[in-house]
Amino acid sequence: MSEGASQRMDAFTSLGEPVRAALSDRGFETPTEPQRRAIPPLAAGKNALVIAPTGTGKTETAMLPVLDAIVRSGPDEREGLSALYITPLRALNRDMRQRLEWWGETLNVEIDVRHGDTTQYQRGKQADDPPDVLVTTPETLQAMLTGKKLRRALSDVRHVVVDEVHELASAKRGAQLTVALERLRALAGPFQRIGLSATVGSPEEVGKFLTGDRDFEIVEVDVGSDVSFTVTHPEITPEDEKLAGKLATDDEIGSHVRAIRDVVRDHESTLVFVNTRQTAEALGSRFKTLGEPIEVHHGSLSKDVRIDVEDRFKSGDLDALVCTSSMELGIDVGRVDHVVQYGSPREVSRLLQRVGRAGHRRDEVSRGTLVTSSPDDTLEALAIARRAEDGEVEPARIHHASLDTVANQIVGVVMDEGEVSARRAYDLVTAAYPFSDLDTETFREVVRELSKNRLLWLDEEADRLEKSGGTWQYFYANLSMIPDEETYDVHDISSRGQIGTLDERFVVNFAEPGAAFVQRGEMWRINDIDDEEARVNVTPIEDPSGEVPSWTGSEIPVPAAVANEVGEIRDVAAGQFESGASRAAVARDLRARYPTDAATLEAALEPIERQVEAGHPVPTAERLVVEGQARQVVLNSPYGHRVNETLGRLLAALVGQRTGTSVGMEISPYRIELEVSSRASARDVVEVLETTDPDHVEAVLELALKNSDALKFTLAQVAAKFGALKRYQGRERFGADRLLAALEDTPVYDEAVREVFHVDLAVEETADLLDRLRDEKERLTLATARERTPIGVDGRSSGRELLVPENADASVIEAIEERIRNDRVRLLCLHCSEWEHTTKVRRVRDQPECPECGATRIACLNPWDEETPAAVRADPDERDDEEERLVERAYRSASLVQSHGKQAVIALAGRGVGPQTAARIIGKLREDEADFYRDILEQERQYARTQSFWD
């Protein structure tokens, strides 16, 4: 018997004759590797986690044994739903239905889809006459569990397939799903659980997440040998200079666009992955300008637009799609023969998921090109590519004991059963793996909070939970654990079609009639904004100067292991440079380990060579380097986003406490930049690092977090999930500080702190790092440099949005100047505290002074700022910390206005420009007024990108 026939027998002999016949009709010659290894245990009814790349037949791997079991049961035994196929994106449902429809028709198995957009008529049909297999989403399952007819149908479920389980394992919506599966088990009895996952670094954890830590098998297909990467930093050519002129951008960005275009032209069908929707739109608009058959695809485009570009790409009308993370999942766009990643993908798992979309013909390698933009970016991409080829993938970071999820699911259990004992609800929730360690007292605190918010009724004596007047409304308003973000629909009034959505923050901060912006890679001018309908009406225009919209979304964090390897590359290169090796020789040695070309490596090594030549220590995972100049202190720490965020917050809090001043902070995976007062220095940073007790890290951070915007923002989102805030009630309308004071001693506050620690910080790893600094036996050392170093400065260029031109053109500057001069500001005299006046910036005198007392100490405030005047007038002995902060900010503003007059007022009128930033803008002493407005615009763009973390 041939090897192929043996494989076929191994995989398919456990399936019944009807399914084997259908396989022959479908042209399945031999099984794919996942099918060969997973079908036998699945056909035997075992729980399993199947880990393999997208496009390797994972759907059929899971569904063939399920369909076989349904066929074997016979039509007479199928009264309700036999199987659920749960997928995290509604976009996948359309694709899934198309792929499963043929199997259903051939095997006489009814397959249907249900999600938020399913019509009421179709839902009614499904409840009255359930299909055999239902493709649905985690959120729709929540709603299904509460319907009378659907509960009867769900009681027959024998198989549940969870697709893209790696995506759910690290999210609260996944934690919510695990409890829903336990609620389903209470209704239907034990059922088979099958998880389909891309490559993850912690298969055991993901398997426990899927099954509730019951018996399961892991079927993992190694992808390291089936992927190939090339990392390139394009050199600037004469063609790029011409392209830059045509695209109204700089030569470097011209080289990026040209490099990506050339890769696309060399292949038939290419996915170009970027890390943000802003970059997708900016890059897409460049290709539109060049007339390339390339379109944009991301989650803020309308469903019709996405389907249109998917179909055009699939049919070959488009050569490429510029896309974001949503395309990592299994949306069917036909065959992809190459993947471009623009900028470092930040994570190994992300790179494997993205490049894994290419190829997949039998024995074909998936190939990807990584186009980088700076030395940091290049070294990071090299480390990730090497780790991907060697299968060194990050573990899934499961949300253990997220209390707002517990609150949400307690209400779900009450909705299921109407009346339930607290003990039964506790047992159901803790049967799910993420909540297995939840103690009874914490659970009771959550129940009491829900009772206080009138979301259920608690009978403490009988230990029973019952529905209250607010139960039904809360539950259906909170089917999803994804935080509510207000969005505006964008409509093209010339075609009357919807083209996409914009976040409320972008609409509030930028959008106004006449403003131009980029979406779908095209330019649009705003006609009008309907706030009641949350709608922006636009018309298409030809204008290269539009703003790239901002969309809510956190930055992809670079793991410590990846950043550590960048430090290792630096260390190896530095040792060779110290021995007299040339840059070409060092690059040649590194190419033996990393997939790139000599020119790319030499460009990335340039700052390291200059660092060694200047005699500065080179920062690595075993040598942190502190450098300082004037009010800038930088800790070079190649430990990734989360460790550096933790370390940065710790330093800002303790250096600020030590010197009695506030400390500004900006972090990257490789450095922490601190802006300090004249009272602080690099020495203070060194002393804090050397003397802080690692055991105190968590306590110091929680204290520092109390006044942070990140905690207040998270607290508002968590409060909404606990029913402590009405749906859509934003923190601006309630007051973040009042909310914090009201909820500080509740499980709502505890969950907000837990989430910030889980998502943004790495307390244990940071404590370990400080411990190693104190231990003389450890190799971790701390070095200093008395000036800014080449490596320390390199990060300044690596974090900017490369596709947004640094210098806006004259028409944009003119528009910004006109807008600011017509903006309103509130002037407040700090000498007499009596006079305040709201007026337009253009009406402010060159040197403002108080008409009451003649003083020139005039603070410039936002026109809606009612709190600062009240704080200024309050008794100094009775001001709280927040009022003291407002007063200090007002005095900084007044000092600027006193020194720089109307120029300070103009700077302070910029959106997101505070006194500290305004002072920096003014301090540049720009001779060209246009450059002054460009600096304001750059700060406004920075603020728009980070506004979710600011009040």
From TrEMBL:
BP GO annotations: DNA repair
Family matches, as InterPro entries: ATP-dep_Helicase, DEAD/DEAH_box_helicase_dom, Helicase_ATP-bd, Helicase_C-like, Lhr-like, Lhr-like_DEAD/DEAH_assoc, Lhr_WH_dom, P-loop_NTPase
This protein's UniProt keywords: ATP-binding, DNA damage, DNA repair, DNA-binding, Helicase, Hydrolase, Isomerase, Nucleotide-binding
Keyword Cell division: no
Occurrences of domain Helicase ATP-binding (ranges): 39-218
Domain Helicase C-terminal: 259-404
Gene Ontology MF annotations: ATP binding; ATP hydrolysis activity; catalytic activity, acting on DNA; DNA binding; helicase activity
Listed SUPFAM superfamilies: P-loop containing nucleoside triphosphate hydrolases
UniProt record similarity statement: Belongs to the Lhr helicase family. Lhr-Core subfamily.
Stated name of the protein: ATP-dependent helicase Lhr and Lhr-like helicase
